[in-house]
Amino acid sequence: MFLTLYFPLAASLSVHDLPDGFLNKVRDGDLQPAGAQASRWSDLARGAAGSSELLRLHADMQMTLGICDEAEEQYRRAQKAIRSPRQAIRAASCRNAGWQALFRHRLATALSCFARLVDEPDVEAAQQVEARLGIVGALHELGRSRDSSDALDELAAATTDPSLGHWRELVATLRFDIAVQRELRGATLLSDHAYWQSGLGDHTLRGGGTAGGFHSMASASDAADLHEVEALNVCTPLLRQRVDYLRQLRALARGERAALDGITAHLNWAQQRGFGDYLRSTRLEVVLAALASDAPQLAEMLLEPLHRIDHAGSTGHRQLEYLYAVAKTHQALGRNREGMLFFGRYALIATQCLRDDSQVLVSYAGKAARQAPQLDDVAARLPARYRRAYRYLQENLDRRDLSVREVAAEVGVTERALQSAFKHSLGLSPTELIRRLRMERIRADLLDDSFSGDRTVLLTANRWGVQNRSTLVSGYRKQFHEAPSETLER
């Protein structure tokens, strides 16, 4: 995932009172020493004031370096160490689950988590900005060019506060990055990359050809040129590495083979610093650039290290670029039988992803919570043993007599254990979660185009177990800052 390089810097910038020297390590790209330093802090910080942020930072470094299973446990420790109001636990839960989902290519969950965090009231500015960064990354991985650009504009607007000055170089680099990604995947020789072509949208304006077969869209190329100028002012060494690499990537896509030396140096740099997932996604970007410049032999050479870590059992978004690159390389080298085999696998996974993505994006665009398990971030934030309790709770929301005692008995735990698990993981008690989910279901019904005039608001609330009008209005207004009738009038 290309956002792996941005994540440790963003995570560090959102922490209060960073210990001396840590941010400099991250800015310089020395992630392994930074991770070791964070590990020492996590051992010393247990029970101390501010320990939750240091524990979380350790987990962030583990995620960056590919130690995902240990990071998950560390995030749970960090949330348990929070001594602030429950709102802080909810925000931390959304944030941590969102990044874990994004690193694991569970894009629907990631987008849902980050969108929920942005909508949380009283979230700190740095947390809002970090959530918007996650949204940009999730939308890009979903292949949504215009949506990711719009989200990036929102991210830039959120960093105008003087206290967020360090974010501006990150945003400038990311703008250039997204523009280059769009330019690369808009190349004529990559026009059969169906998954990405489906999301280029209004950006795909026809343009003239250039040397080496890089027949890019004029608008994408112009945008990349424009943002490159701004990115040249970036001084942070970690980000500068990405800027210089992206410039070499563009040159290779235009057919300039001399750019390969700089690209190879960047890949070696990433490998030495333990950027495993970033190294994989970056190598695939280089393969696409080689294919865009009609250099399939070079693409085959660059793909070789990936064959050892990509296997037939892997599916989903993680495999899309790899399968396409292998299929396209075989085809360009005249190995049509092998090419068709890989194109078949690519087409199957691309179709599955596009079908699932459509549900994700409808929910995101509508800003309305809907009952769709594949979009549910709450389950991802709960410990595995309590997810069944959450499912049972969802299935019985329409029952007025649904109780916490009943939910606890259904999954074989005590009420106290259930209360503790929900509060530590979600920042909400089971009762508060039931109330919130019911209000979300009511709102979704009120926003439904099929809502008919003969159905009153109270009848809709009754359908979801809310019988009292004053309970409905007060709870609804507290959650959505408007009355149900105001929602209905839209």
Main beta sheet: strand number and arrangement? none
Order of helices and strands: HHHHHHHHHHHHHHHHHHHHHHHHHH
Fraction of helical residues: 55-70%
Oligomer: single chain
Number of strands: 0
Protein traits:
490 residues; mainly alpha; Arc Repressor Mutant, subunit A; globular
Q: How do the strands and helices of this protein lay out in sequence?
A:
Blueprint: H1 7-13, H2 22-28, H3 31-44, H4 51-64, H5 68-80, H6 86-103, H7 107-119, H8 125-141, H9 145-158, H10 167-185, H11 194-197, H12 218-231, H13 237-253, H14 259-272, H15 276-292, H16 296-307, H17 317-332, H18 336-366, H19 377-381, H20 387-395, H21 404-411, H22 415-426, H23 430-447, H24 457-463, H25 469-480, H26 484-488
Helix pairs in contact: 1-2, 1-4, 2-3, 3-4, 4-5, 5-6, 6-7, 6-8, 6-22, 7-8, 7-18, 8-9, 9-10, 10-12, 10-13, 13-14, 13-15, 14-15, 15-16, 15-17, 16-17, 17-18, 20-21, 21-22, 23-24, 23-25
Tell me what the structure shows:
With 490 residues, the chain is an all-alpha fold. The chain has a domain at 382-488: Arc Repressor Mutant, subunit A. The chain is built from 26 helices and no strands. It has helices at 7-13, 22-28, 31-44, 51-64, 68-80, 86-103, 107-119, 125-141, 145-158, 167-185, 194-197, 218-231, 237-253, 259-272, 276-292, 296-307, 317-332, 336-366, 377-381, 387-395, 404-411, 415-426, 430-447, 457-463, 469-480, 484-488. Helix 7 (107-119) packs antiparallel against helix 8 and helix 20 crosses helix 21. It starts with 6 loop residues before the first helix and ends with a helix.
